[in-house]
Amino acid sequence: MLPATQKRFILAKRPDGTPKEGEHLIWEAAAPMPQAKEGQVVVRNLYMSLDPALRPQMSIRTYVEPVPVGDVMRAQTLGEVVVGTGALQPGALVTGIGGWQEYFVADPKELTPVTLPPNTPPNAILGILGITGLTAYFGLLRIGTPKAGETVLVSGAAGATGSVVAQIAKHVVGCRVIGIAGGQAKCDFLTKDLGLDGAIDYKAEKDLGAAIRKHCPKGVDVYFDNIGGDQLNAALRRMRNHGRVVMCGAISGYDKLGSAEDTGPGIPSQVAANMVSGRLRLQGFIVTDFAKEFNQGIGELAKWMQEGKIKNAETVVDGLENAAKAFRGLFEGQNTGKLTVKVADRAVRSKM
């Protein structure tokens, strides 16, 4: 039997800076349960994905409409069907835009059934074997087009997408890979755990450009940018002729969206001139551009995991009530790898 109420976070107000729990994100401990119509299913969330892209969606239109004020805060989730219909029966695992709540209702076409590979933690479906891994896979291989022996520089390299990018470049393609991260512990993680060729602690470096020159003496062939701002400008100064810059994110300026503040430094004129003379290619992308090839991407990512070429780096926060605090920590660099929130344990076991 389903409970009479559920717990959730709603977006109460658009933030004009750092989102605050109690002002922008409101915790509701006894919210109404969603009601399913005929042909719909009820899903109980198990894990919730926390991603930097959610921050712009709180304030402005991006590649999707912003979260409506008063609605449940948006997020992709992994859940189990508790009230089913048709092929989706109780116990089935699915992913969908379930939001920051315990339960949600959806049409079957809005959900993606999940089959876990052997020995795979369920929340990997939201990370390395989900949108995060696919963003790294297509962004690096299709936009960055690295070749064995080239130098690849990755910002946010200890984060969700960056850690997958760095591992694919190093252990699958055969590139020389340098990661940028914040703090010695994360840099040690990149070199000792993930096997990168070097790591730059941007928090400790007074001159980031000099650090990039030291680690990339012959220049950078591919720069995978998750940060924007000063790190992007420093990398652009070290690009080799015909270098490729993959524009994946700009987390350094997200907290200023919706405010009157500048979101960060633009590209200086001299750097822009060098981009022209160096024939650089800067290209942004949205992972759904490659939706028809998702199955191929997930298949290869799963294969590389089984072969030990890439690892599932993650940070799991326990409890939906801690989601707002964990989301704030995402922008303070508190996570390593993919950040998910564990909402609940499985209650129903599928016979499949």
Shape: globular
| Percent helix range | 25-40%
Largest sheet: 7 strands, mixed
Note the beta-strand portion: 15-25%
Describe the structure.
With 352 residues, the protein is an alpha/beta fold. The chain contains 9 helices and 15 strands. The strands form 3 sheets. Strands 3, 4, 5, 6, 7, 14 and 15 form a 7-stranded mixed beta sheet that branches. A 6-stranded parallel beta sheet has the order 10-9-8-11-12-13, with helices on both faces. Helix 2 packs across helix 3. It is globular, with a radius of gyration of 21 Å. The two termini are 22 Å apart.
Descriptors:
352 residues, alpha/beta, seven-stranded mixed β-sheet, 15 strands
Structure described in brief:
With 352 residues, the chain is an alpha/beta fold.
Topology (elements, then pairings):
Layout: E1 5-11, E2 25-32, E3 41-49, H1 54-57, E4 77-83, E5 93-96, E6 103-106, E7 112-113, H2 131-144, E8 151-154, H3 160-173, E9 176-181, H4 184-193, E10 198-201, H5 208-215, E11 220-225, H6 229-236, E12 239-247, H7 269-277, E13 281-284, H8 294-306, E14 314-318, H9 323-330, E15 338-342
Parallel strand pairs: 8-9, 8-11, 9-10, 11-12, 12-13, 14-15
Antiparallel strand pairs: 1-2, 3-4, 3-6, 3-15, 4-5, 5-7
